[in-house]
């Protein structure tokens, strides 16, 4: 396995599987923040300490008990090009912060890309596990398994009263960040999101864009996650978030039904217009592509469109990002060139789907 394995395939293999409520919940993610005992945090450590931490974690992953779980690949950030790092960010395999933390930063990825262990991001270790649909509890168990195996080889910074010690105070305690990526076109079209977001914040949760903190919600896709990690167990955090996500799912389905009842022909027209734009456009910006893909996915979920797989839309949502477009082109593209190539890729991929 090599970096090309992670760059050439737009969709991770686990993303081709349907999970519970996958018409609305695209992915479930669990991230555990951990630091090694007797080392300074990444915000203040020096390169020698950073290098030691990378070597410690790499050696732990190479242990036969951990290596037997998945086919892991070790990638150092300073050995990747800026474009390669951008593609990994677009696939949600690394964070933008890790991509910028060269030289002594790294990631360890499983072959099917459902496990990502980031080294020297904001903390020494960030264990990330991903699953399709609403599977937060199952994903937490996967993260625990990796966490327990790592802890057999490294000493974590842990306080009996505070829990796991982290660079950011909001992660102290369990160190867990649980999140679900959700597609909410019904709530957006019925203008309920502006009311819903403050209500979610009052529950101690946070709503972010498609790439997490500081990113924009495009294509009606949002990340909803816990905000605090201290004072509750991992199970309680995941249970509370799951409960809220289920309520949001119910509200989204209710909003979709209301649209069908009140504006069925207008909704169907919107869906097919967006499909037409995707099939025939010659120039397309990122936001327009994301919005059209969102409309078409809604049309598939509602049964308007029968001959397009929603898995193809998952693929298109990723390969139309700037990094992937340039990776396929093999060179840096100007914005207008990216818009032309984006439209071309979408047309060709949808045409291939029709042939099959």
From TrEMBL:
**Xref: Gene3D superfamilies:** Glutamine synthetase/guanido kinase, catalytic domain
What regulates the activity here? Appears to be allosterically activated by the binding of pArg-containing polypeptides to the pArg-binding pocket localized in the C-terminal domain of McsB.
Please write the reaction equations for the catalytic activity of this protein.
L-arginyl-[protein] + ATP = N(omega)-phospho-L-arginyl-[protein] + ADP + H(+)
Q: Which GO terms describe its molecular function?
A: ATP binding; creatine kinase activity; protein arginine kinase activity
Has keyword Nucleotide-binding? yes
The superkingdom listed in its UniProt entry is: Bacteria
NCBIfam families referenced in this protein's UniProt entry, alphabetically: PRK01059.1-4 (NF002194), PRK01059.1-5 (NF002195)
Can you name this protein? Protein-arginine kinase
């Amino acid at each position: 396995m090599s970096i090309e394995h992670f760059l050439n395939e737009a969709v991770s293999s686990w993303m081709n599987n349907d999970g519970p409520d996958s018409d609305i919940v695209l992915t479930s993610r669990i991230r555990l923040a951990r630091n090694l005992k007797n080392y300074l945090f990444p915000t203040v450590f020096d390169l020698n300490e950073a290098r030691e931490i990378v070597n410690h974690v790499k050696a732990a992953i190479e242990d036969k008990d951990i290596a037997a779980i998945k086919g892991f690949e070790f990638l150092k950030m300073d050995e990747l090009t800026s474009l390669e790092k951008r593609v990994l960010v677009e696939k949600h395999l690394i964070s933008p912060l890790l991509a910028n933390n060269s030289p002594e930063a790294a990631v360890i990825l499983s072959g099917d890309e459902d496990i990502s262990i980031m080294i020297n991001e904001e903390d020494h270790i960030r264990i990330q596990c991903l699953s399709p649909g609403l599977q937060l509890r199952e994903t937490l168990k996967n993260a625990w398994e990796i966490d327990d195996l790592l802890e057999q080889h490294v000493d974590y910074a842990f306080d009996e009263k505070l829990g796991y010690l982290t660079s950011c105070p909001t992660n102290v305690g369990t160190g867990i960040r649980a999140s679900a990526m959700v597609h909410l076109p019904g709530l957006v079209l019925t203008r309920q999101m502006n009311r819903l977001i403050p209500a979610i914040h009052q529950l101690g949760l946070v709503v972010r864009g498609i790439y997490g903190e500081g990113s924009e919600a495009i294509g009606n896709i949002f990340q909803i996650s816990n905000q605090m990690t201290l004072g509750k167990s991992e199970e309680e955090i995941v249970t509370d978030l799951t409960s809220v996500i289920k309520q949001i799912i119910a509200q989204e389905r209710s909003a979709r039904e209301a649209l069908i009842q009140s504006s069925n022909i207008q909704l169907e027209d919107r869906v097919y217009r967006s499909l037409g734009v995707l099939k025939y456009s010659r120039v397309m910006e990122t936001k327009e592509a994301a919005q059209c893909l969102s409309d078409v996915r809604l049309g598939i979920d509602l049964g308007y469109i029968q001959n397009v797989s929603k898995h193809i839309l998952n693929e298109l949502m990723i390969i139309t990002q700037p990094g992937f477009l340039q990776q396929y082109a093999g060179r840096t593209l100007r914005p207008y060139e990216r818009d032309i190539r984006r439209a071309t890729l979408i047309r060709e991929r949808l045409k291939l789907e029709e042939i099959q």
